[in-house]
Structure formats: structure tokens, C-alpha cells
Fold:
Amino acid sequence: MQPTPHDPSPLALLETMMLIRAYEEAVAGIAAGGSAPGTCTSVGQEAAAVGVVRALAHEDRILTNHRSAGHLLARGADPGRLLAEVLGKRTGYCKGKSGSLHISAAELGVVLTSTIVGGELSLAPGVALARTMTPGDEGIVATFFGDGAACEGVFHESLNLAVVWKLPILYVCENNEWQAFVHRRETMPMAHVRDWAASHGLIAETVDGNDVAAVHAAASRLAARIRETGEPAFLETLTYRTRGHYEPDDQAYVDPGELAAWRARDPIELLANRLRLAGTLDDLRLAQIRARVLAAIDEAAAFANASPYPELSELVTDVYA
Structure:
């Protein structure tokens, strides 16, 4: 049984991060084997996703990017339906029409996944504006993007609109140091995207993106402020993806020393070690969690593999015209 999508307890956060890791490693394996198209993972960034999503309320809305599996699973998505979507099966969240990079799940409040770099940033102000125009709607909008998207013009346009129109948006930059195959140092004159955000006049914070407790605390604080003021806020999570940009990818372009240093700060291990020191986690309990996670992935794979493909008649349904 997967933890409930609003459970912020440390053990629930740990199990969700482990589930995300296992799911994405399974999808990467499928892509490497040629049974499904390649995909973009967020392995190493689990704390950034879980810490923020678990700070959101049921009525909040999420717009995310091509590394969306962590956000979806943290929100309570069914791994079986996600994997079915990756395989193009009818039982997927979008009936097999989105693949892994365009998943939306209205019942979870996930409005869209955009593979256009910064695409979600262009749409977040519209979603938030609609919420402010709906009587009784107190939900906020959280939009996730990487440091690469922060180098796009739409980043500044989106923040400018949000500040001028006083829109309830939590901007979450998962600064993972890599923009596809290019390092952040080659495209940005400074280390923190926060500086750009602050120049637009909104509250902007940076947090250790591999510390799930720190991320959750910062996101909770900023979300509460947005609900109180109706104005946007910005959170930068400093993290790192330890797999390549697009699966399969041998990461030959990555400095081995840098990669090793970040792997030594694995967010799952950081939390597990903290819980061991606190006396709330031992080897037996960790093994039980790992067994549940692996069982969930096996069940998801069985469901997805057994699911049918869409009928040809479905080719032009569920599309906008």
C-alpha cells in the first residue's frame, strides 16, 4: 500500500522517494531494452519533488515538465496506470496517447506535463488567473521547471505577469545543474536562479533540494504565504539528476568526480541515515519498505503489460480542435 498523497511523515516521504526511484529505474530499463520509447528521468531529484508536492493541498493544481514521474507519484498517481501510459496502453492516465512525457491526471490536479522547455511556465499564469476568477476557489498553482527553462524568455514573462496580476503561483525551479547535455555553468552567469526571480519583486528562496525535510518546510511556508496574500513566490531546490538527460544515456559528457560527489548526497540515503540516527528506522523496517516498493512496481508492470492497446477508432478522440 503506497503512502497517502498528503502524508508528510518522514517514513512516508522515504517510501515515496523509494517508489519514485524504483519506478523510474524500471522505466529506464524498459527504454534501454527497446520495449518503449526513451524517457527523461529525475533519478537523484526525488526529495525536490516529494518535499514540494507533499506541501500542497488537495485543491491545488500542478503544472510540470518532462521529468514528471516524481511529481505524479508524490501526488498519489497509480504506478500501474503511469506505466501503462508509457507503454501506450488504454488503461493509462491519458489512454495511452501521451507516453511518459505528456501525462496529465485531472483527478490528481495535475493539469499537464509539458516537454516544451518552459511550456508549463507559459500556462501557469492562465491557470492561476482562472482560479482567482472562480468564486470559492482558494487553491494555488505549483509549476515545476528546471534551470534550463529559467534561461528561456517565457520564464521572465511568466513571473512578470504573476507579480503584476498578483497570481497565486508557487514557482519551483529544480536546479539540477544540467540543461539536457549542457552544464548550467555554460549558460548562466551565476549559480542561483533565485537571483533572477527576486529581481521581479517576488519572495524567492533557495533550499537544499536533496534534503526532503528542508524542501517540505520551505514549500509549506511559501504555500501558506501565497494562500494568505494571493501573491506568487519562488522556490529553488538545488539538486542533481544522477542519470542522463534522456534514456538510454551513458553520461559520457559528465565529470565523473562531480557525479560521484552528488551520488554521495543521495536524497534517499540522506533521509534513511537521519531516520536511523533518530531511532525510527532499522534494517528490518527498511527492508519491509523496499519489499513493498518492489512489489508495487511488479504489480504495476503486470497490470501495464496485460492492458490492451487503444482501438484504432480512438485515434482522434480526446483531442482539442
